Amino acid sequence: MTSTDRAGHGYPCVSMDEFKLGMRHLAAAVTVITVDSNGTQDGLTATAACSVSAEPPQLLICVNTLAGAHDLIATEGTFCVNVLNTEQEDIAKRFAGIDGAPRSERYGLGSWTTLTTGAPVLEDAMVSFDCEVVQQVLAGTHTVFIGHIVGLKAAQQGMPLMYGVGQFVGLDVGL
Length: 175
Ligand SMILES: Cc1cc2nc3c(=O)[nH]c(=O)nc-3n(C[C@H](O)[C@H](O)[C@H](O)COP(=O)(O)O)c2cc1C
Prior knowledge:
- The strands form three sheets. A seven-stranded antiparallel β-sheet has the order 3-2-6-9-10-5-4, sandwiched between helices. Strands 1-11-12 form a three-stranded antiparallel β-sheet, with no helix packed on it.
- Helices cover about 15% and strands about 40% of the residues.
- The chain has a single domain (about 15-165), classed as Electron Transport, Fmn-binding Protein, Chain A (Pnp Oxidase, Chain A), CATH 2.30.110.10.
- It has helices spanning about 15-25, 70-75, 90-95; strands spanning about 30, 30-35, 40-45, 50-55, 60-65, 80-85, 110-115, 120, 125-140, 140-155, 160-165, 165-170.
- A hairpin with a 4-residue loop joins strand 4 (about 50-55) and strand 5 (about 60-65).
- The protein has about 180 residues and is mainly β.
- Bound molecules: flavin mononucleotide.
- Flavin mononucleotide (FMN) binds near residues 30, 46, 48, 64 and 142.
């Protein structure tokens, strides 16, 4: 379906500018989604990651079909979601391609290990979810990948890095 298509009741959809304005206000945790396919690694910064099911344990991610990691995730059938802490903003910028570093240096920041699937796991991330793809759905510009969680590593300390109203911020628990 394209943006000019009409769904269900036939209501016209909001414009892309309205969509972007709305999404600026949907603050979310910042993650780096990683993949390794026979030694070829890629990854991207993403906020579109959320819980789906506890039994079986599943989460979903939404990845632009044009992102370098997209086809690797689709063909390899595995990925890892690394939830960043407030000390890892530089890694968020690196994997979003906004710090000017070449793609070959995406893994040049931070320390990396693996869990079950071989997808890169960021040491000191708030939590890393190692996943096997069980479903994928093309939705406009993005593919929704549903991952079965086959490995998990959680940190003992740190606070999550968030993104909202166009900026990176630390989660402030002082309400
Ligand atoms: C805070 C933030 C959140 C993002 N969230 C997503 C996301 O959920 N899905 C996505 O496909 N791209 C997202 N992006 C964009 C990708 O990180 C960016 O397009 C990246 O460069 C994709 O990798 P590429 O260089 O291989 O295209 C986000 C970027 C930022 C800065």
